[in-house]
From TrEMBL:
Organism: Kribbella karoonensis
Keywords in alphabetical order: FAD, Flavoprotein, Monooxygenase, Oxidoreductase
One of the record's GO molecular function terms: monooxygenase activity
Residues in FAD-binding domain copies: 2-330
Superkingdom assignment: Bacteria
Extent of Basic and acidic residues compositional bias: 341-369
The protein, known as: FAD-dependent monooxygenase
Cofactor(s), by name: FAD
Disordered, as annotated region: 341-382
Amino acid sequence: MNILIAGAGPTGLTLGIELARRGIAVRVIDKATEYFEGSRGDGLQPRTLEVFEDLGVLDEVFAQGRAVPLLKIHVGGKFAGERRMADPVEPTPDIPYPNGWMIGQSRTERILRDKLAEYGVSVELGTAITGFTQSADAVTAELSTGESLRVDYLVGADGGRSFVRKHLGIPFEGTTDESIRMLLGDVAADGLDHEYGYWFGSQDNPMEGIVMTPLAGGDQFQFGTPIEGDTSLEGLQALVDKYAGPGTAKLRDLTWSTVWRPNVRLAAKFRVGRVFIAGDAAHVHPPTGGQGFNTGVQDAYNLAWKLADGREEVLATYETERRTNAKRVLGISEELMQKHVDGDESALDRGENTRQLDISYRDPADHRPLAPGDRAPDAPVTDAEGNKIRLFELLRGPHETLLRFSPTTPAAHPHTVDITSPEAFAIYHAQPGDEILIRPDGYLA
Ligand SMILES: Cc1cc2nc3c(=O)[nH]c(=O)nc-3n(C[C@H](O)[C@H](O)[C@H](O)COP(=O)(O)OP(=O)(O)OC[C@H]3O[C@@H](n4cnc5c(N)ncnc54)[C@H](O)[C@@H]3O)c2cc1C
């Protein structure tokens, strides 16, 4: 089997690793001639951390990132208190990584590219997809380099303006809100303590202001504001002087800045025949709630094993599962966006539903506490040598896993975990003799 992935953002890279580690011939191309260096999606959600553990990149992500910082709130230039976007939560046996993690997108992408390279796959820069046709058994793609290639599947992970989506004629339904603009940039700030995040709100409307989030690995902050301004260093400095008070912070080393319009759009289809779309190509989000990056990673993780499987009934579930989820996530980020616009302070809190741990593909009519389609929770288990370890360590890898609770027969499935720990029984709501199959992407089959 061979697969072409158009786009080497987080979605394309995750998919590339997932396919390459299954021994599938994969090429990852990107139109850009150099890697993007902005921080953009800098918040990883707990579910993404679980996926990254499976992909073998979590240690590096932890080494290069940082915990969600405490935010020092200033109103009218005066310190008004401290708060967190989310209160830190202790890990539990079923949720090993309950808290988000901050790391600039360009760093995460570099980590993913390094992992992909371990499987012998390098991103082909300066290589755009410019056309394709498909038949019942193959896709023929045209590249900007003049090459034409025939593959089993094509995946468009080519971002919000996706060529692949447009070429398929799939409508991108939703809105671009012209009334809201976000000015964003990566910049260092002398005078601010890099251990903290900052909110500089105006005296008249404390919800109107600038957020500065420290970026791990250096001294920059991600600067963000819905206030009109220009993207130069002087432009950002003028806003900081106005909202934080002159002399509070001297900005320098602006390496990236942009004005960004919140888009809320969902593709009408995620697939036509042998061509799939994933990530921003399939759905775009406002930045509120930090879902865009994370949802793209989950798309890729859901799609990879299905492409490897290749059966039509399995492939068909990609769109049903992930489009339904994208719709739900768009609702969450849109609601948070509206709260920001309305000046509702609760918009600063990131609730349970942004962690993506509650993603489920279950039948809504199934009301059991744990049902097919739910995330497989972590649990304490014992490995073949009798060592106490975490179930997630045994789930690692591209295979599905059969959990057997106090079994009495020899194992027949090549990846079987026999469970005796009472804690794991409780987490899985299991009875002796139960068997639960876990999909390669960590959901109950
Ligand atoms: C300013 C900004 C702030 C953001 N903040 C957050 C945040 O806080 N949290 C969060 O979760 N998300 C955030 N996001 C969203 C996040 O950056 C995206 O959701 C994420 O990058 C999507 O990943 P992707 O791989 O699907 O697409 P992209 O990262 O857009 O990657 C697509 C790739 O495809 C390439 N490409 C395009 N056309 C072609 C072609 N024809 N052929 C080959 N390659 C092509 C592009 O060069 C690009 O490298 C933000 C986005 C922006 C712009």
